[in-house]
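Re: the request from the purification team.
They wanted to know what the chain is likely to look like in 3D before they choose a buffer screen. I agreed to run a prediction and write the result into the notebook, where they can find it.
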Amino acid sequence: MNRRVLLVLLLLFLALAAVAVLQTRPQPAPSLASLRATVTAQGTPVYSRVFPDMAVLDIQAIRLRDPNSDIEFLISRGADGQWTAPDATADERLDTDTASIIARTVVLLYYERTLPLTDSTNLREYGFNPNGNLFIEVLLRNGEGHAVAIGTLSGSRTVYYALVDDRQELYLLERAPVDYLAMQLAHPPLT
């Protein structure tokens, strides 16, 4: 009888060991499509970049501008590839780390979703009276240019309405990056 109990215990131990090994095996990484489907099903917004093909090294110059007061801040790359502030006075020096962050913010500018523009769309409802509150203008090394016109905050105060280039859509841009760029315009990183 001891042999029978010992055999049953040995089989039970082997079964438990097999279950433990199967449970500790790493799960395969989910695909991007399945992650997006899961996130969308849970009601969490999936963000996309406004300029998905743009890289920081593609940028020659960035201008942040308030179209209502004509206040602007311009950064551009010098011949050595370093960021400069062409409009800075002789006593001012550009914080190049902050200039790099500005460029990365523009490249990574993302939106939650878009709304179609029609002939009956009243842009004044979105903060364009007629211009908006902030312009982000980008010149690429290949001569191509892009512009983002920022309107007002949405009712939830989590996204800004924006027009991008000549696209026939109204973009809902995440608030934090836009607030950061507006702060850089109000207080340029010059020392």
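For the purification team: The chain has four helices and nine strands.
Please add any questions underneath this entry.
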